[in-house]
Structure formats: C-alpha cells, structure tokens
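Regression check, uridine-5'-diphosphate case 309:
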Amino acid sequence: MDKKPKISIVVPVYNEESLVEELVSRLKSVCDGLNRSYEIVIVDDGSDDGSFEKLKRIKETDEALRLIRLTRNFGQQSAVLAGFRMSQGDIVVQLDSDLQNPPEEIPKLLTALTDDIDLVTTVHKKRQDGLLRVIGSKFLRGFGQMLFGESVKLNLSSFRAMRRSVIDKIETCRDRSRYMAVLMSWMGLPSVEIEVEHHARKKGETKYSFLTLFKLSWDLVTGYSSFPLRLVTYMGLFGAFMGFLMMAFLLYQRIANGILIEGFVVLSAVFAFFAGVQLLSIGFLGEYLGRVHSQIQGRPDYIVEKVMD
Ligand code: UDP
Ligand code: MG
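Current build output:
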C-alpha cells in the first residue's frame, strides 16, 4: 500500500434501496482508479425500506465498505456527522447517496484540494432538480447569505472534499444544530469552489419538501443569528413611537380644537396590531428559549444502532 493519505468517502443513506448497489459499484470503480487507499463510510439514517439489508449484503463481500446504522431517522446533517466521526482518512469526501453528485467527479475535487486548500466546495453547472426544489434551495441560500452578511461566503452544497482538520474544527463548535455546510462556510477556511455536473435523481424522490426547507431556513435563522430578537426590539421601538405620535395627536385635538375622538374601530385595529406584535415577540423569545433548553439537555446528535467495520 502506498503512503499517500487515505481517503474516506462519507455518504448518508435514507431510503435509497433502489440506488445503493449502483452507488457502491460506481464509488468503487472511481476510488480504485485513484491509486490511493480508501474507505467508503455509509451511514444508514434509519431507513425502513430495506436499504440497510442490501448494504449489509454488499458489505459481506466488500472490505472497503464500512457501515453504520442509526437507530432512527436523525436527518442528513446528523448522519453526515456520524460518518465524519467514523471516518479515518486524512481526506474526507462527502456526497449524497442518490447519485445526483456523480462519483466520477471525485477526482476533480481531490485535484483541487492542493496543499494550501483545506476545503473544496462545489457548484452545479446545471442543477437537475424540480422547480420547487430549486426555488427552495435558492431561498435557503439567499436567506442564509443575508443573515451572515458579506464576510461569510455560504456554500450549502453537500458535495465537498476536506482535510481531517476541518472535521476537527467542526467538533469544536458546540452548536446544537450542526448544519455542516454552514459551519464550514462560517469558519472561513482556505477553500475553493469548483464546478461539477449534477444529475437528475433516477429513482426515489427528494427528502426535502418545501416545508422541510422552510423548517431548515427557520433553523438556520434561530440557530445562527439573533435577527428575530433584534426584530422584536425594532417592532417595540416602532410601536412605542406610533403610540407616542397618536397620544400627541389626540391631546392636541382635545386641547387646541376641543375635539374628543371616539374611535372604537380605530382603537380595535390598533389594539389588534399591538397584541399581534406582542404575541409574535413572545413567540420569538420562546423559540430561543427552546434552543437554550435543548442545548442544556445536551443530548447527542444521533444514536448509533450498530457499526459494521
Ligand atoms: N438523507 C439522509 N437523511 C434524511 C434525508 C436525506 O441521510 O433525513 C440523505 C439522502 O439519502 C441523500 C441526501 O441525504 O443521500 C440528500 O437527500 P435528497 O437527495 O433527498 O436531497 P436533495 O437532492 O433534494 O437535496
Ligand atoms: Mg438528491
């Protein structure tokens, strides 16, 4: 075996029964061509469609494959984290299991990972996804970029190559919601972005509905910024200012013109508005309280059912 660093390929799998065979065989033929020692770490994120049974069968005849199964579905980010922790290579490549990130592009990523670079991220030449999925992603990215500002260059692609040091740095982030791509972007590591092909999903369907993406955006907002709390302050300021203006107006009418305004409808509208703002504000506070609560509980990100080395 040569002395070049060992490469780990980390892949999260959730209900991809129809694709796992092709996935492993394509990954293997690409990796065999690399001329370096490698391992393929597949994390089964609680699939209930027979993906794991299939993977187990493949694993019986395959030394390079390492399998880890989580007890239930913990979500892509947790599955990837589990894979990162299990991987042993000096260089780690992360990709999706649905073959939308073509394994044949892996050598390109590795070439881009030169001595001065710690992280290689990707952009798609042409994204082959449904319209809603693409819009959802654009929304998530645009929103995230707005929150982080110009100093952080956000890349949320799940196809990337990195040095082991990047994973060590991720471990130092004690966040409850470990959105890998966000943390990696936030760290501002020496990185390059390269263009890769993107293929349409041949089988199965995306696990990210618009609602899921919306939840993810919300998680992004409350997990990585205090923008909503600041918004509450602004709304409070605005409310107080409006109230002050209204009082001044009413007093002026009473004293200068002798008019007593009776406006039940106006009053109801104003009341409804401020009641709404207050409830919303309490909601925002509750959201962060919930986060503090779950951070204090300090539960692990996932539970491993078994590991097959
Ligand atoms: N995935 C996972 N756990 C989940 C959802 C998805 O491990 O709860 C995996 C899935 O098997 C795939 C990757 O994450 O390998 C990306 O999922 P998908 O292709 O559905 O997302 P999209 O391509 O629409 O971003
Ligand atoms: Mg996909």
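Comparison notes: The pocket of magnesium ion (ligand 2) is lined by residues 96, 98, 100, 201, 206 (CB under 6 Å). The beta strands are 7-13, 38-44, 65-70, 91-94, 119-124, 160-163, 191-196, 304-308. No diff flagged against the previous build.
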